[in-house]
Amino acid sequence: MKPLLIVVSILLSLILRSQQIIPLNEKPYLDSLKNVANGKTGNEPRANAYYLLSNYYRNTDSIVSKKYLMAGKILGKNNSFLTAKYSYYEGQYYLDKNKEKAGSSYQQSIKALSKFNTEESHFLQSLAWYNYGVSQKNKQGYPFLVKIILEKSIPLVKKYENSRNLGFLYTQFGIILTYNAEFEKAQQYNEKAIAILEKNATNSSELFFAYFNMASNFCYQKKGDEAKKLMDKAEKLIKPYPESSANAFYYYGRTLYFITKQMNVEALPMIEKGLVYANASRQNLLAQMFYLNKYDILRKLKKYPEAKSILENILVEKTLIIDANNRKAIYKQLASLNEEMGNPSQALNWERKYSALNDSLQTENVKLEINQLETKFNTLEKERKIIALNAEKKQKEFEVSKKNSYLWGLSLILLLIVSLLIFLMLIYRKNRKLSEQKEINFQQKIKDSKQREELTLTKAILESEERERERIARDLHDGLGGMLAGVKINFSVWSSNHVDASKDKDFNKILGQLDRSVSELRHVARNLMPESLLTFGLETALNDLCEFYIRKDLDINFQLLNIEKNIPLAVQLNIYRIIQELMANAVKHAQATNILLQCSQSGDQFFITIEDNGKGFEKDVENSTKSMGLRNLKNRVQYLKGKMEISSDSQGTTINIELTIHGE
């Protein structure tokens, strides 16, 4: 097996996915963030703590990560810098879930952060550009990512020459060069990173990963002794923190070293120790890399059945084979392994899968493009000097030409003519713009009029619907319900004097059925018009609604934040109906076993977030005329001048709603 074909690409994918620098001493860092978030230090430090907590949990607990993200958004709503940071951390949250959504969030953050000229803003912009490149990697390839790093990310922090952030970006770029077998250039950038970090961030996780990345680069060049020196340095940094998740990377580095030195038996204990850390911190991709190296060792030891079992489990687990190049390499390994084991039919089957996938993948001259981009970056200063010299030369030539009075006079005449033409053009464009603006204003008035008519119609329909619900509920509860209750009482009194309980069991059964019918009638009446909402308010009614849906196989987590008591009753009723429809969809259609419902208020804005782990639904269902529940839901959101965002796939559904609360 040639590990360079598989393991290096997986290592790159791992670094690109898990790119978030957390201190090696993880627990105090986490406790400190939680103390700030739960304290009374002001909105800005608490919002920053919420964002960092969201980033910490984004790969291990999606629900907790989203909870912290939304809490930070609420606290930073009135702060433009915190709002810009929210877009960045929203991109982080979606990076492994929805790359299209993540890319859009990163671009929003870049645009908003560019208004602030601070080191923190520049670093966040550089990370946003970097992660945008990561989100587009599968679509546009590694050359696009390299271009982003060299032309966008690094220039933003290059002005801070001794910044640990610059060191971090250098080592990230070194990983990409290693992946493309540009080992010497990768070493140059790793050395730059280590020089900066050893001087300015001596005990940092950035320095630990710089040692690890450079050691990996040496391993892939079969320079085991040089790799060991760097892993020894990494060990000194990580040894005081046995609970840190970074230990998984330390043991992976040791595994690569032993494999490089062909000490395969010694590598196996490193793999087992690394797996303990990787599984404990849910680093699934790193765990699969350990298994891949274990497969390589077992095959060399001629333990073919065990080696084959590991590869088959990797395919079942699916983390690695999301990348088509990794899947192709594993198919090739299974083909050659089955051939060695004397299974020609299975070997042929895997070889066919390999060939089909290999033909479908487009090849690209990545190495050439990276060299071109890297050369362009390194010669940027020279080009700037040439441009400056050319500008100086042109300036001198212009000064000489001014001495010629004839040319000067001619230039002045031409300038006057051009100025006149420009003036006439500006007048023409101004008049045309005024005409266009009038047309736009007219069309906007028509549009606003239509919207007002639609809102008036929607309001009338909703109010009529609620009045009819209230009338039916009152008639059922006070009219038919009272009559049935009276019949039940009369039957009970009559039966006590005329019915023998031991002989007339059927009568008692009928009486029980009548009792259940009365209870069901009252349940229907309460559903039509919830008494708890009218009597105790929105918070109690929503709690009752959640308790109604809770059952043995369904867990509902309901969270309220800053809900005020003075919300108009009509608005409370509409909010209740919206959440009632959302809960019904999650329980009846999505078949969810876990639902998170969050409601929060900030001034006149009311936020609703509901997440479930159900089966999701197709995109076109949202716009289908047959989906009456979603149509009613959109009408109520529109009535409250709100907006709704739906994200659904086979892993579940997330719906975010923002409503405007105001008096009639």
UniProtKB/TrEMBL annotation:
User: Does RNA-binding show up as a keyword for this record?
Assistant: no
Enzyme class at the top of the EC tree: transferase
Q: Which Gene3D superfamilies match?
A: 1.20.5.1930, Histidine kinase-like ATPase, C-terminal domain (3.30.565.10), Tetratricopeptide repeat domain (1.25.40.10)
Q: Which domain of life is it from?
A: Bacteria
UniProt GO cellular component terms: membrane
Give the EC number(s) under which this enzyme is classified. 2.7.13.3
Tell me the protein's name.
Answer: histidine kinase
Species per Swiss-Prot/TrEMBL record:
Chryseobacterium soli
Transmembrane residue ranges = 406-428
Pfam families reported for this sequence: HATPase_c (PF02518), HisKA_3 (PF07730)
Q: Which reaction does it catalyse?
A: ATP + protein L-histidine = ADP + protein N-phospho-L-histidine
Which SUPFAM superfamilies does the annotation name? ATPase domain of HSP90 chaperone/DNA topoisomerase II/histidine kinase, TPR-like
Sorted keywords for this record are: ATP-binding, Coiled coil, Kinase, Membrane, Nucleotide-binding, Phosphoprotein, Transferase, Transmembrane, Transmembrane helix, Two-component regulatory system
Coiled-coil stretches are 363-390
User: Does Transferase count among this protein's keywords?
Assistant: yes
Q: Which CDD domains match?
A: HATPase_UhpB-NarQ-NarX-like
